[in-house]
Design the sequence.
C-alpha cells in the first residue's frame, strides 16, 4: 500500500501559478536567471517577489552566468524519496557569487570534486497537471 | 515571570510500532500521568501537541483537540498544535512554559506524537521532503540526510574530523539505547558495525543516522505553586532559547560546519538559567545524524570549535566524562518520531534530574540541557535544574 501518487513533487511553474514564471520560461531556453530588487538593488537567490531587506515587491529579472563552481557536495546512495534514484549528487554551486542548491546530472560520483566547474543543464521533469513542460535548474560537470 | 517546572513525564515504546496514532497518544499519556499520580486528566488546563505530518500518516488534522479527547483533558486555558518539523516538541514546551510563566495557565500537558511508518517507511521519506523548500530543494529529491552530510563534509574538510569519530557517536548512542527499554534499537553497536554499515549519503552511514520511528512522549508542566502542591521533586525550567539562521540551504551560514543559530539559542538559554556549559551534567542533543551531535558539542560550548571529534573519541561525552550526552540513546538509538523527540528529551532530563533514570542514571545530575533542531539552521535549547534558583 502506498500513497505516493497523491503528490506532485515539482513546482507549478506556469504564469497563472507563480510570480516566478519568468525564471522557468528562461530556464526552458537554457538561461539561468534571478531577481534583483528594483528598490534596493539586492540580488537574490533563489528569485523572490518580495524583498526581505527593504520590503519592496518590485523586482527585475537578470540573467546569471550559466557556469559555476562546486562549493560542497554529497552523494546520496539510498533513502531517496519515491521517484528519485541514487546515487544522486547534491551540490551547492557558486554562480556569480550566489550559492545555488542543485543536483549534478550524468555525473560519475568518483569524478566529482570541490572546486570543479559545472554548467547549467536544465532538467526536464514531469509535465504539470495541465500538460505544460517543467524544468529544474540542474548542472553538469563542464 | 513566574517560575515553571516539569512535574511528570512519560514516553511510549519507540519503534516500528503496530499501533495507531491514537494508541501512541494513549501510551505516552498513561506513562506521564503514572509519573504524576496527584494529577488526573480533568485537572489539566491545557494541551499543546507537537506533531509534524499526521495529515498524511494518520489522515488527521485538528490534532490538539483529538488528543485532548483521547486523554480526557478539557482544555480551559490553552489548546494548540505546534509544527516546526523536527523541533516541534520543544517548540511546544516553550509555548506551555510561556503561558504558565505569564500566568495564563497553571498546569499544561505537552505531548509529542508521530506515526511515521504508515503505511511504510518509504512514505515517511517522501513526507520528509516537506521539511525543506518544495520549490528549490525538495523538487530535486532533497530530504534531511544530504543536508547533514554536507555539514559533515565541511567539518571533515575544515577540522580533520574522521569517519571513525563520526562512527563513535553511533557506537555511544546505540550502546546507551541498549539500556533504554523504550528505545527503537537495543542491541548496541560496535565501531566495526557502524563503519561497515551501508552508506546513506557520503560520509554518513546507516548507523550514524536516526531511523524512521513511531512514538510519543508527554510532560506535565506547572506553575511553582501548583508544582509544589503536586510533587516533592519538581524539575525546574531554568532557561530557554531559540534562534534561526535560515531555512533554505543557500541562506544558511556559508560554512555548514558552523551553526551560529545553535550558539545563539544556547547563549539565550545559558544566560537565562545562569549556568555555564561546564555546569551541564546531562545533555539530550539532536543527533539526527552523528555530525549534528559533534557540531552541537562545539556550539553548546562543551568543547572548542573543531575539537568535537576528539571530544567523543576521548569519552568526554560519555559516562565518566565532562557531560553525558544522550543517555537515553539519542535519536540514533531511540529513533526520531519527529514531534515526539523534543518531548522525549525533556522526559529523559526529568528522570535524570530526579534520580529515577535507573541503569542510565547520570550520578548526581543537577543541571540538564536539551537541544532540538529542525535542520542545520534552526535550534531550540532548554535548560532544566534540580534547584529552582
Sequence:
Amino acid at each position: 500500500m502506498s500513497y505516493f501518487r497523491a503528490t506532485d513533487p515539482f513546482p507549478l511553474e506556469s504564469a497563472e501559478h507563480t510570480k516566478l514564471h519568468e525564471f522557468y520560461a528562461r530556464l526552458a531556453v537554457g538561461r539561468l536567471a534571478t531577481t534583483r530588487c528594483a528598490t534596493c538593488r539586492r540580488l537574490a537567490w533563489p528569485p523572490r517577489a518580495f524583498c526581505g531587506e527593504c520590503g519592496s515587491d518590485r523586482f527585475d529579472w537578470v540573467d546569471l552566468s550559466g557556469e559555476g563552481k562546486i562549493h560542497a557536495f554529497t552523494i546520496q546512495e539510498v533513502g531517496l524519496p519515491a521517484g528519485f534514484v541514487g546515487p544522486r549528487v547534491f551540490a551547492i554551486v557558486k554562480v556569480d557569487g550566489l550559492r545555488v542548491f542543485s543536483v549534478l546530472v550524468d555525473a560519475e560520483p568518483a569524478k566529482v570534486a570541490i572546486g570543479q566547474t559545472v554548467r547549467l543543464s536544465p532538467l526536464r521533469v514531469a509535465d504539470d497537471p495541465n500538460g505544460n513542460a517543467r524544468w529544474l535548474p540542474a548542472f553538469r560537470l563542464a | 515571570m513566574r517560575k515553571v517546572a516539569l512535574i511528570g513525564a512519560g514516553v511510549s515504546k519507540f519503534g516500528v510500532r503496530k499501533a495507531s496514532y491514537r494508541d501512541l497518544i494513549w501510551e505516552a499519556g498513561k506513562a506521564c500521568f503514572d509519573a504524576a499520580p496527584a494529577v488526573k486528566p480533568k485537572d489539566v488546563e491545557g494541551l499543546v501537541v507537537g506533531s509534524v505530518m499526521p495529515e498524511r500518516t494518520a489522515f488527521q488534522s485538528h490534532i490538539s483537540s483529538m488528543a485532548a479527547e483521547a486523554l480526557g483533558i478539557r482544555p480551559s486555558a490553552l489548546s494548540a498544535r505546534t509544527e516546526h518539523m523536527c523541533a516541534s516538541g520543544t517548540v511546544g514546551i516553550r509555548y506551555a512554559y510561556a503561558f504558565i510563566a505569564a500566568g495564563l495557565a497553571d498546569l499544561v500537558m505537552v505531548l509529542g506524537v508521530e506515526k511515521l511508518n504508515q503505511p511504510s517507511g518509504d512514505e515517511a521519506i517522501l513526507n520528509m521532503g516537506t521539511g525543506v523548500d518544495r520549490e528549490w530543494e525538495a523538487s530535486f529529491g532533497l530530504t534531511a540526510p544530504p543536508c547533514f552530510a554536507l555539514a559533515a563534509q565541511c567539518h571533515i574538510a575544515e577540522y580533520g574530523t574522521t569517519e571513525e569519530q563520526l562512527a563513535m557517536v553511533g557506537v555511544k548512542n546505540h550502546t546507551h539505547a541498549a539500556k533504554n527499554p523504550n528505545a527503537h534499537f537495543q542491541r548496541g553497536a560496535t565501531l566495526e558495525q557502524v563503519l561497515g554499515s551501508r552508506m546513506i549519503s557520503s560520509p554518513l552511514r546507516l548507523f550514524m543516522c536516526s531511523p524512521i520511528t513511531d512514538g510519543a512522549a508527554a510532560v506535565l508542566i506547572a506553575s511553582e505553586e501548583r508544582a509544589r502542591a503536586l510533587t516533592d521533586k519538581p524539575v525546574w525550567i531554568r532557561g530557554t532559547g531559540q534562534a534561526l539562521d535560515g531555512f533554505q540551504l543557500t541562506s544558511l551560514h556559508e560554512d555548514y560546519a558552523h551553526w551560529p543559530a545553535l550558539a545563539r539559542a544556547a547563549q539565550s538559554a545559558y544566560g537565562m538559567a545562569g549556568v555555564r556549559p561546564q555546569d551541564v551534567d546531562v545533555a539530550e542533543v539532536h543527533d539526527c545524524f552523528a555530525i549534528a551531535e559533534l557540531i552541537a558539542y562545539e556550539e553548546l560550548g562543551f568543547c572548542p570549535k573543531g575539537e568535537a571529534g576528539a571530544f567523543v573519541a576521548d569519552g568526554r561525552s560519555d559516562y565518566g566524562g565532562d557531560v553525558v550526552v544522550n543517555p537515553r540513546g539519542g535519536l540514533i538509538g531511540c529513533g526520531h518520531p519527529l514531534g515526539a523527540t523534543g518531548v522525549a528529551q525533556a522526559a529523559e532530563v526529568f528522570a535524570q534530574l530526579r534520580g529515577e533514570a535507573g541503569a542510565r542514571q547520570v550520578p548526581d545530575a543537577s543541571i540538564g540541557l536539551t537541544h532540538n533542531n529542525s535542520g542545520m539552521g534552526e535550534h531550540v535549547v532548554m535548560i532544566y535544574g534540580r534547584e529552582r534558583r
